[in-house]
Amino acid sequence: MAGQRILGRLAIASVLVCWLAAPAAADGLSRFKEAIKDAPPGALTYKTAKSLGDSGFVLDDVVVTPPPGATPGKTQPIQIKRISVEDFDFASIDKNAPPNFARVRVEGIAIGAKPAEGIDLSQLAGIDKILADFQLDYRLDPERKTMTLNRLELDLNGLARVELSMVLDGVGADAVGNPDAAMNDATLRTASFVFEDRSLLSKVLPAAAKMQSIEPDALVKMGKVLLDGLRAGQGAATLAVLDAVASYIDDYKQPKGSLRITLNPPGKTSAAAFAAMKSADDAIKALGLVVSYAGTKTPTPAAPAAQSPADAVAAAAAAAAAAAKAGAAK
Predict the structure, then answer these.
(1) Which of 2, 32, 58, 62 has its CA 20 to 30 A from that of 242?
(2) Whole-angstrom distance, CA of residue 159 vs CA of residue 220
């Protein structure tokens, strides 16, 4: 829940590109200045600005103040070092249509220890502040109905980096304005997701364990027991995925590289088709899913006997209780 609120506040910094719906002007900066007149007073301020040709601009030392009700609880102004709109589809905006392409960089987003009401990162994970960078680069080809997300990246400096890219077919011109409806008709061609941990897991996992009054290693063991309960009866591709995820969890204190997930479906795969899949093997084969991690370890014991989800949860709870009892006895 806390993570969703933080990401929500980060997203506000990039939403300003939606304010670009203004009449045509000489250059990107002029268009932006015209558009910002319709923004709520004080919503966006900056010290310096410059144009990047006729389709972009740069703002330095920016302060974004979310309007009341934009996020749950009381919100604070967001300090941003630089916002660079490197390329933007003003032609579509001038026609009151969603932009077919955009390339945006938001650098130095300052997040304090209390980014929202009820959230205290210093108590939760010993984090006093976060500096984050955000990138968005996409292009929609309405004629071919192809949506290419070149990069969607969130970099929490010193903590972690998340990067997503994908290519979707069957995406119409209204996809940017109505993404939920577009996803129902779209088919996935390829996708890649990368999670690079720098210190986030070593902070968050102990904090989560403390909230449950157990040791961090006991929480890790619970997760691995749940994964083990999914192994029975699965094929080699599914077991390889479980091995990579379990190994990454095991190395939470110092991961040996990034966790990378790639999807290369052998055929067209839609959201509806994915929902109809009955087993992990079916889903992994249909998606062409591969999870790679440099520190992956293959379990030496034989795969456990078939376990129902309820049995797996019970086994995990028992393992956690045993670990907690052992910790209390020390």
Answers:
(1) 2
(2) 19
